[in-house]
Structure formats: structure tokens, C-alpha cells
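Hello, quick one for you while I still have it in my head. A protein chain has come my way and I'm curious about its shape. I'm sending you its amino acid sequence along with the C-alpha cells. I'd be grateful if you could look everything over and explain what you see. Here's the protein in full, and shout if anything looks odd to you:
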Amino acid sequence: MTGSCGPYRSADFGGRQTIFVDSDGNADVRTDQQNDANHEDYELVDNRHWSRSLGLWMVAIYIVLFLIRPWEILSPWLASFRFERMYAISMICVVVAMGRMPRWNLQTASVLAFTAVVSLSAVYAWQSQLAWHWLYQYVTIVIVYFLILAICRAPRDLFLLILTYIATMFVYLAKSLWEFFIHDRHEHAQSVTRLLGIEETYGEPNSLAMSVVLSLPFWLFLVRSRHALTWQWQSLWKSAYFLLLVGYPCLAIVSVWETNSRAGMLGMAAFALGAVLLQQQPIRWSKAIAIGAIALASLWVITPSTQKERLSTLWDRNAGPENAHASAAGRWEGFLAATEMVKSRPLLGVGIGNFKDYRALFVDGIPLVAHNLPGQIMGEMGLLGGVAFTIMLIAMCLNSYSLLRLSRAQPEADFRVYSNLAQMCFLAIALSLLFGASLHNGVRYNWLWIAAFAGLALQFCRQTVSELDEEEMIAEGGESP
């Protein structure tokens, strides 16, 4: 068994003894029993038995349903008796019956404030009937956010939900690529074939590429924390976990390529660069830049010619069809249209889901959405929406920063899991903002899932630090005369 503790580096010799070598070259031989005792000091890595909480498993299953959405394409007959709604109501009843309530903090308050603005923008929308569908969809995401906060009572619960997220995306992409390559299911736009998802809500090529890239930071979290999170597992489950970690980036890269989404390809490159910069070990900026440049160059070399030409339309006016350049230029035009909406309806905008129709009739006659985050928020939700969203974003960053700072201040190696998650939350936020420069992502689920993961991790990290401090005080008290 190979251990990992403090500043030690380890080598495995037959599974009975492990030699740890610290940075000074001092060796320490430990048995498996000693390694187990060392790990069991912390609840964070206590994943020998999953929680038996019915509410937790119902939320995990709902994450699967939410991402795959079988009632839309795979099994449309489920929509006839409103399967999603019935399951969601049952899940809410179970969690409420368990008497669990989320903790109130700045993050939770900011989510409620933004939700209130979204609701008001729907009530006072230019055409309210255009807003109800989008309001219902966002309120559903908010409810899931609060259920995640309420049902997770230990670090292993949070880990289960993150693992469920990535495993579900693995299945989602595998099925999407199967349909693309075997059954030729695709969209043809801007002179290229584009991969579609297996559902309608987030299955459009650009939206699918965004879903893939925004999941990668949490895949990387599972990679970097694999030893601490799976050391108690049986070999079969470890093998399955390994296959998930190896297979998912392969599916992700091919999927983003086949969507032919320029934003997706840029996002993939940004993720690769961020992963290099956010190394677990300190790294010089010059070395990080060199590694990042090599990684990006390698990605460019293996990128198929169709995707290279598609991406080159961002800087080469002679590359690709004319409508591809018009699409890129339309982002700025969408932002300008949003400023006109703010002038006419400053506080609450034209209403969620009203951007396209209002723009076509009263702004520039173009029936398109803003295709950028600032334009979407300001145009549809006005100045109040911009302020509320900014506060929610700041709260997410503060939680991630507090988690990173607190975990790095602890000498125990197991806190690296928390610091890894904090870094990945920062990376996911940065990637979300990057996509916000070209896509309509203000009310996507990713924002609230990042907020939930960061908030829960900070809560558990503080609890663990407090428990360790109490144990240390008790030990010191027992040793005193």
C-alpha cells in the first residue's frame, strides 16, 4: 500500500511496508496498519462506506436525470406523466422530512437575491409569457442548490456528488459520440458538422462544449485527490475509478472537437493552461509558461484540420464561411443591443427570456440573443440583475479563497484535498467567465453547482480544523500536571 502524508514522498515495496522519504532525505518505514491509522484520523478520506442517507442518494440520482434529461430525447414518453416533476417533488419531501436545512451565509443570501431579481424580471417582463419557462428552469436549479447544501453532512457526501457529476458526463458524452459516429446524428451549420447532445436543453453544440469544459476542473480534482479519496476502496472500484479518470478527458477532447465550437476549443486550451499554472507543487512562472506553451502547441498539432480552420476564423478573415465571421461579430452587436434595453428598462431589463423578441421589434431588428454574459444579464435583468449577479460571483470567489487559504495553513497532508477543490472552483469560475464573453450562460446550473461545492468544502474544512484544535487542546490538557 502506498501512503501519502505531509511532505513525504513514498515508494511501494510489496504492499506490507511503505518507505517514506521526506525532503531532507530521512527515511521512515511504516506498516499498512500504521498507514491506515494515519488516514483514519480524518473523516475527509473515510470513504470505506458510502452514506445510507435516502435524501443524498435521491439528489445524486437527480443529478444524473438533470444532466441526461431522458424525457426530452432518449425516452420522451416520460414527459407524458411529468416524470421529472414527480421525482423532484418526492426528493424535496424526503429532504424536508429529514429536517435538514442549509446554513445561511453570504453565498446563500446572494443566490436568493439573484433569484429574486430573476423572478421580478419575469413578473415585470415585456412579455411575461416568454419568461415563465426560463423562470421555472432557473428556480429548479436553485432548489437543487439548496438540496445539495441541506443533504451533504460529511465530506464524503460532497465527494459522492462530484463523482456522480463526472461519471454522468462520461455516460452522456459516450452516448452522444455513439449517436454521432454510428447513427450520424449531428447539426450542419456554418459549413461544418457539429456534435449534438442527447437532450435539448443543453445539447446545442456551443452549450454542449461549455458543459464539457466546465466539468473538466472537477475531473482534475478527482485526479489530483485520487489517493486520498479512494485509498479504502476495493481494487475493483479503484479500477473503475481509474478508467473513469483516463477515459473522460479522451471523450471530452473528441466531443469539443466535434462540436466545432470555437468558444469550446478556446475553453479547452484555457483549461489546459490553467491546469499547468495550478500545479500541486510550486512552479516558476517561466516554467509554467513554457509547459503551457508546449501543451497548447501539442493540442494544436493533434487537432484535425477542420477544427483548425474553424478556430482560425477568429483571427483570419479569409478562413471559413462568411457567416462564421458574422457570428463572431454578433457578440459585440448583442452587447450594444443590451445597452439599449438598459436605457429603456434600467432596473429589471426586458425580462428573462425576452431578449431576442424585444431586440427584433425595438432595437436593431435582429432576432438573436446577446451571446455574451454581460449583455444577457443587463439586457434581461437590468441593473439590479447585474448587481445581484456580481455579488453572487464575489461570494463564490470569497468562499474559494477562504477555503484555499485555510487548507494551505494546515500542516496535515489530507487538507490538500480541500486546497485542490478550491483551486478547481477558481478555475471553473474563470472558465465560466471566459464562456460568458461569447455565450448565453447567466442562468446555467454550473454557477450554482460551483457555489455549492465551494461553500460545502469550506464548511467541512472549518469543521475539521475545529475538531483537530479541540483534540489538541484536550491532549494538552491531559498531559498537563
